[in-house]
Amino acid sequence: MVGNTTVDPLAWASAVTKPEIDAVRNPRTGHVLNVRRLIRAFRYERAILLRQRLKALVKRDDARLVCATCGVPVYLACSTTKRFFFRHRHEDGSCPAVTRTELSEADIRAMKYRGAQESGAHKRVKALLLRSLSADPRFKDVASERTWRASEGLCGLRRPDVSARTDTHRLAFEVQLSTTFMDVVLSRKEFYRAEGAALVWVLPYFHPSYRRMTVDDILFGNNSNIFVVDETTAAASEAAGTFIMTCWYRKPFIQGDDIVDEWVERMVRWDEVMVDVNSQTIVVFDYAQEAARLGEELRAARLESSAAAEAAARQALEDQENELREQVLRFILDASRDDDDLPRYQAWALLNERLRSMGYGLDGEYPDLLTVTRIVHLIESARAGRPVGFGYKSFAELGHHLIHQHPELLLAFGHMLRRFGTKEALYRDDRTGKLKAKLDALRGHILHDPKYRMPEDQERLCAFLSQGASLKARLRIPR
Ligand SMILES: [Zn+2]
């Protein structure tokens, strides 16, 4: 065997260039899925797990995907270059898509296994494993190739390469060879799970950049941890009097905005190994949990930074608005009589452009300077509780003026008096009570008669300049 394509676990899976089965169907929903797109939606490590899951389901006659052409259950297979495709569970020639060679997987396995099973490497690792376990007094009944019969009610038997038990676990060790097919891996997993025992796969050698498909099946099925027993670890076990293996595992970390992996290789004592019989995972490092935790951390950091950016943008806008408001108010209130009319109008036109860019300017090609002047004076009068800039002595006079000359400003004026707490001042010098009478008389019409309605652009500008005081209480400045 030459050449080996090794795929980064986090890389996106890819399909073979021309899959025989190019569409599969979910028999429950009836949805037809494009095979190439479906495969590309998975990370490589996930595709390996999906492959195992589909295989297990097909064996249980619980097909989740069928060939879209003929309806036969399919499972996911992988080419020697680690590209994925779908295969019929059985083929009788009725489907134009031909996905199986003449030899069945069982045939190939039997053929290869016979030769490989007792290969030199296999024997050697088994012997090293026996040495290592025997060095540790916590392992009892250490035996080679002892028949393991299924407990009552279950059927079958297995002959693990090495078996042993500790105070807490019954253990089966299998040396993983290049020809151990996925369904062997899966069926043994099931067997030992049912037995309440843990199956530990042991490799003679591992390197992350040279992984066979069969190794990937075990690696990703075991939460990205894999164990190696060799001469060095056996010697270490004997020297320490405790079972030691080399563990390779993936360790995720955050790089910029992504989670990436690094591979860690270290010698581990059995005490560090976490055994979960139910999930049949034997790990030193919980990759899945750590990856999930980092994913959560990334999400939180993204959320936080976008919230911070939003707050900063909001603050910047607010600062900009405050500055502009102040500028407009000063422009009107600080005007002296000597101001030359033309440049003053030009300056106002520029200010109105800025107001308009923020959504508050007066409409029209020639925004009226008198209009904005009146609005600013209205606001400042309401705020001060006396006429500002209208040329009247008493607040009541200003009231009469508004009623007769600018009824459209009355509502805004009323809201501002309430907001600024200056309403009493309006009636203070209404000695005749005329103003009050007039206001009482128009109260019934003010909400309906259009003459009391301010043009929209003026209303917006007034609300902006008064910071919402001109609007009915509790309304925000319309934007
Ligand atoms: Zn088919």
Uncertain spans, ≥5 residues at pLDDT below 50?
Answer: none
Summed up, the domain count is: 3
Give the overall form. elongated
Instruction: Determine the fraction of residues in helical runs and give it as a percent range.
Output: 40-55%
Strand content: 15-25%
Tell me the name of the CATH class of the largest domain.
Answer: Alpha Beta
* CATH fold field value of the largest domain: Trna Endonuclease, Chain: A, domain 1
Structural class: alpha+beta
Could you give a short account of the major beta sheet? 7 strands, mixed
CATH architecture title of the largest domain = 3-Layer(aba) Sandwich
Give the strand order of the largest sheet, numbering strands 1, 2, ... along the chain.
6-9-10-11-12-13-14
Task: Compose a concise summary of this entry.
The protein is built from 15 helices and 16 strands. The protein is an alpha+beta fold and 479 residues long.
Structure description:
It is built from 15 helices and 16 strands. The chain is of the alpha+beta class and 479 residues long. Strand 1 and strand 2 (32-34) form a beta hairpin. Helix 2 (44-59) packs across helix 6 and helix 4 packs parallel to helix 7 (231-240). The longest helix is centred in the middle third of the chain and has 47 residues, at 287-333. The radius of gyration is 41 Å and the shape is elongated. The relative contact order is 0.06. The structure holds zinc ion.
Which structural traits does this protein have?
three-stranded antiparallel β-sheet; 479 residues; Trna Endonuclease, Chain: A, domain 1; single chain; seven-stranded mixed β-sheet; 3 domains; binds zinc ion; alpha+beta
